[in-house]
Amino acid sequence: MTQQQEFLIPLDLYLKVGLHIGTKFRTKYMEPFIYRVRSDGLAVLNVQKIDERIGVAARFLSQYKPEEIIVTCRRENGWRAAKLFSSLTGIRVITGRYPPGVLTNLALENFTEAKIMLVTDPWPDKNAVNDAVKVGMPIIALCDTNNTANNVDLIVPCNNKGKKSLGLVFWILAKEYMKHRGIIQKDEDLKVTVDDFTPD
């Protein structure tokens, strides 16, 4: 079996959307995932590790029912992909500003008893992360090379800023989650393509 076949998707798809291109800033949390630093100073993430972690995240999420999962995405570049992910999987997604107390204040109308959280970026989504920490909920976070991840249980290294790279991550997560949950049997059963998640 070649390395190409071991990936969740063809390698060129990862490269095409720049999922592996990080920032010029690197934190100690992300050092294990950095493959090299380009001559222009941008850090390049290890694609094999990205693929492995997306797979781990999908298997972890698939242990939970859709209503037990909450996804937050403050970053506008990910809104379209996150909403499409939600409509396919039934998982609750909060785009834009995270309403404080959703997980901690029983008196709120939109109070949610979720069991696991996925955040698109632990920095803009820090209020959601703080709430999850208060209730002891595991946190999966998409993290770029500049992210700190002290409250994160599972880091998924990736370019978490680009519209196309976020679209690709949400498409793979939707596909893998639905396969693990038995909603679809194979990739071809998913009625939406990566292009629906990553429009031009």
3D architecture notes:
- This protein is α/β, with parallel strands linked by helices and 200 residues long.
- The chain has a single domain (3-197), classed as Glucose-6-phosphate isomerase like protein, domain 1 (Rossmann fold, 3-Layer(aba) Sandwich), CATH 3.40.50.10490.
- The protein has seven helices and seven strands.
- It has helices at residues 3-6, 11-16, 47-61, 79-89, 126-134, 163-180, 194-197, and strands spanning 34-37, 43-45, 69-73, 92-95, 116-119, 139-143, 154-157.
- The protein has a five-stranded parallel β-sheet with strand order 4-3-5-6-7, with helices on both faces.
- Helix 3 packs across helix 6 (163-180) and helix 4 (79-89) packs parallel to helix 6 (163-180).
- It starts with a helix and ends with a helix.
- The mean pLDDT is 94.
Remind me, CATH topology? Rossmann fold
Largest sheet: 5 strands, parallel
Low-confidence stretches: none
CATH superfamily: Glucose-6-phosphate isomerase like protein, domain 1
Terminal residue distance:
33 Å
Average pLDDT score: 94
Return the domain count.
1
Structural class, by secondary structure, is alpha/beta
Helical element count?
A: 7
Looking at how many chains there are and whether they match, the oligomeric state comes to single chain
The H-and-E topology, N to C, reads as HHEEHEHEEHEEHH
Give a short overview:
With 200 residues, the chain is an alpha/beta fold. The chain has helices at residues 3-6, 11-16, 47-61, 79-89, 126-134, 163-180, 194-197, and strands at 34-37, 43-45, 69-73, 92-95, 116-119, 139-143, 154-157.
